[in-house]
Amino acid sequence: MNKYAVIVAGGSGTRMGAPMPKQYLPIGGMPVLMHTLRKFVRAVFNIKLILVIPANDFELWTELCEQHQFQIPHQVVAGGKSRFQSVKNGLNMIPDHEGLVAIHDGVRPFVEAEVIQSSYEVAAKSGSAIAVVALKDSIRKLQDDGKSVFQERQYFRLVQTPQTFQVSKIKKAFEVPELHTFTDDATVYEHQGWQVELIAGNLENIKITTPEDLEYAEFLLRK
Ligand SMILES: Nc1ccn([C@@H]2O[C@H](COP(=O)(O)OP(=O)(O)OP(=O)(O)O)[C@@H](O)[C@H]2O)c(=O)n1
Ligand SMILES: C[C@](O)(CO)[C@H](O)COP(=O)(O)O
């Protein structure tokens, strides 16, 4: 069964506020995105990688690949205005309706090989596999009246990527018009009335979003 990964890096990284989108910033001397692609190619034999980046960045990416002698084979496709559109563009590059596809944020370079592998195994059986982690802190819900209420944290999970699916099902799910409630691929999938399957993610699989995350990423890499 073919295994694909759509690595989405079509964003502009506004919250990072760096001179270039965060996916190209170096950690340990190499762009974040290259660490992420390397994780997938090392975790899964014969994986087919589809990289989604902004259309204007094709030249930059080619230059970075030359500069870092990055030779992992991958197909590059232009992103869209939203993450939903970028994922959809990536999925459109998959030539068949067979197989499995992991959708992963390019800015999550610390995903563990075991998480990637288990996501394909579970999605093969259940149709989907969504990486999540439990909360360590207490949690409260803010109300419109300005008050807050206690929530039982055992009922909550933080959602990460990879989010892995049977290709036929996720392609069908992405045929719908985009809704503001689609915060990730799991929400698009369950909009079809299908139940998502959760798997254990890894705590270090952070989404590099703000400058402090870059410092933490350097620390994780040195560890
Ligand atoms: N139009 C978009 C927007 C986001 N993404 C990707 O989705 C992932 C998660 O998004 P986020 O962390 O929000 O990235 P940005 O949109 O770049 O960041 P910001 O919201 O700070 O601008 C990132 O890998 C990002 O590149 C994408 O492929 N296409
Ligand atoms: C897909 C995601 O990383 C799961 O946690 C998250 O929903 C992306 O959110 P963002 O607002 O696009 O950063």
Number of E-state strands: 11
List cofactors, ions and other ligands.
Answer: cytidine-5'-triphosphate, ligand LQXTBERG
The class by helix and strand makeup works out as alpha/beta
Residues in helix, %: 25-40%
Tally of alpha and pi helices:
7
**How many whole angstroms does the radius of gyration measure?**
17 Å
What is the CATH H-level superfamily?
Spore Coat Polysaccharide Biosynthesis Protein SpsA, Chain A
The topology string of helices and strands comes to: EEEHEHEHEHEEEEHHEH
The total number of structural domains is 1
pLDDT averaged residue by residue: 98
Give the overall shape, derived from the CA principal axes. Answer: globular
Main sheet characteristics? 7 strands, mixed
Distance between the termini: 35 Å
User: What is the C-level CATH assignment?
Assistant: Alpha Beta
CATH architecture: Alpha-Beta Complex
Q: Enumerate the spans where pLDDT stays under 50 for 5 or more consecutive residues.
A: none
The proportion of strand residues reads: 15-25%
User: Could you give the order of strands across the largest sheet?
Assistant: 5-4-1-6-10-7-11
Describe the protein's architecture and organization:
The protein is α/β, with parallel strands linked by helices and 223 residues long. It has a seven-stranded mixed beta sheet, with helices on both faces. It has a two-stranded antiparallel sheet with strand order 2-3. A two-stranded antiparallel sheet has the order 8-9. It contains seven helices and eleven strands. 39% of the residues are buried. The chain has helices at 32-43, 58-67, 83-91, 113-126, 167-173, 185-190, 211-222, and strands at 3-8, 26-27, 30-31, 48-53, 75-78, 100-105, 128-134, 139-142, 148-151, 157-166, 198-200. The protein is globular, with a radius of gyration of 17 Å. The chain has one domain: Alpha-Beta Complex (Spore Coat Polysaccharide Biosynthesis Protein SpsA, Chain A). Residues 83, 105, 159-161, 183-184, 207 line the site of ligand LQXTBERG.
